[in-house]
Design a protein that fits this description.
Length: 199
């Protein structure tokens, strides 16, 4: 291969390597709503604060990553609450594998462009106390059911994005989703045990 062909091949690979970055971008806009409204929420990832939304509802832009966001909220008269907001595999990187080769995969992985956060998340802050044990248990059972529903939806999306070329990454994502669900359900049950009931 002559020098001209090498230069042209490298230029083509460089252009194609930006496929997912151009299609999906490197950040996401996430809208946060809470029950009750007017809460203060902090968005973080791996312990680093990315943005704050005060008061809710509101939105913030965050850089894309395969790692989940943690949305922690507080409001007067309510217990603090937090949720994990999982990212979604966009699939745009698959085009890079075909067209741009390994360079595209590296660019997209570094920029976070092969993952994107869903556009909205809702956080329910528990009352500081409940009128009865039945009211308390009903509240937390609904919280667990909502988390399980979100887990099933996240798993379905992760499985739908899996291809032979990225099976290992998909399996890692599904394991991460399962661990996050288990941790959230454990935390919900711990909050139920601590919740006060009026006597």
């Amino acid at each position: 291969m002559n020098l001209r062909a090498i230069v042209l091949s490298f230029a083509a690979a460089s252009v194609l390597s930006a496929c997912a970055t151009v299609v999906s971008g490197t950040d996401s806009s996430v809208s946060i709503s809470t029950d009750p409204v007017g809460a203060s929420c902090t968005i973080s990832r791996e312990g680093a604060t990315l943005a704050q939304v005060t008061p809710t509802p509101g939105q913030a832009r965050v850089s894309n990553s395969r790692l989940p966001l943690n949305i922690a909220c507080t409001a007067p008269g309510r217990e603090p609450a937090s949720v994990q907001h999982e990212s979604e595999f966009t699939g745009a990187t698959l085009g890079n594998l075909i067209l741009g080769g390994g360079i595209g995969l590296i660019v997209d992985a570094a920029s976070g462009a092969n993952h994107k956060y869903p556009p909205s998340v809702r956080v329910e802050l528990p009352p500081t106390e409940f009128a009865s044990a039945a009211e308390r248990d009903g509240f937390y059972e609904r919280s667990i059911a909502a988390r399980e529903s979100r887990f099933r939806a996240d798993m379905q999306k992760a499985e739908g994005s899996c291809q032979p070329s990225n099976r290992t990454a998909c399996e890692a994502d599904m394991e991460r989703l399962t661990r996050a669900r288990d941790m959230d359900v454990t935390a919900i049950n711990q909050r139920r045990e601590r919740a006060r009931v009026r006597t």
